[in-house]
Amino acid sequence: MKKSLLFLTLLLSSLSLSVTALHADQRLFGYSYQADSIMPEGKWEIESVITRKPLSNNESKWYVSQELEYGLTPRLTTALYLNSQITPESTEFKGISSEWKYMVLSPNVNPIGVMVYGELKMTADSYELEEKLILQHNIDDWVLVSNIVLEQEFEVEDNENTKKGVLEVYGAAAYKFSPSFALGFEAKMKKVYADFGSESDAMNFFGPSFHYENEKWTTAITILSEIDSDLDLFENIYSRWVVGYSL
């Protein structure tokens, strides 16, 4: 079942390459957001996000999100998406998420672009809040972005409430070789705070990104490797594939 669900998701994402669209919400990176990543007013987009997290014994955990996005105003975009998780042992539905993005300053007309982002994710026994400050600066054909991310996670497990905080900082850069094609890199720092207390875990990542689009669709892929990790290569690789098309 889990292999069939993953295959179906990949197939649906691949079929988006042949769908004619009026507009696609451009994503240059797999993980980092741009400050101008806003849907035009009145336009819809479907986006598939597939994320791989390594497990031990050369196995993988997959997170799959199917998102429906809508441009409410020229600056405000909202989205609703369904989440699932696929492991070697099981396939689980992981709830729904509501996403809101507001472009404060456009990087295309200002030296620095600014976007604020809020998300609520809910499952049967947990909920998560996520806030992002997204910055962008364009230099000729270069796009430079930074994301500062805060997460608050609350879960009920064995009749006990658990909570943790997460801080993530992203830095990314991409060079546009043409309006359709870009190559770049992403860097990520992640810290986890159990019970919102002292830091319990810290990780750093770095890796390349790839972007391609035309008038019909857009796609981005990022592969990240954990820096200073003692794990072997396969157990050290995280990846994300984003495919979007307009309705």
What does this structure look like?
This protein has one helix and twelve strands, in the order H-E-E-E-E-E-E-E-E-E-E-E-E. The protein has 247 residues and is mostly beta strands. The protein has a single domain, classed as monomeric porin ompg (Porin). The protein has a twelve-stranded antiparallel β-barrel. Mean pLDDT is 87; it is low at 1-24.
What is the CATH topology assignment?
Porin
Helix content percent band: under 10%
Provide mean pLDDT, rounded: 87
Q: Please report the first level of CATH classification, the CATH class.
A: Mainly Beta
Q: Which superfamily, in CATH terms, is the homologous superfamily? A: monomeric porin ompg
Encode the helix/strand succession as letters: HEEEEEEEEEEEE
Strand order of the largest sheet: 1-2-3-4-5-6-7-8-9-10-11-12
Query: What is the approximate shape?
Result: globular
Largest sheet data: 12 strands, antiparallel, barrel
* Distance between the first and last residues' Cα: 29 Å
Secondary structure tally, helices: 1
- State Rg: 18 Å
Number of E-type strands: 12
Number of domains: 1
**CATH architecture annotation name:** Beta Barrel
- Uncertain parts: 1-24
Strand content: over 45%
* Broad structural category: mainly beta
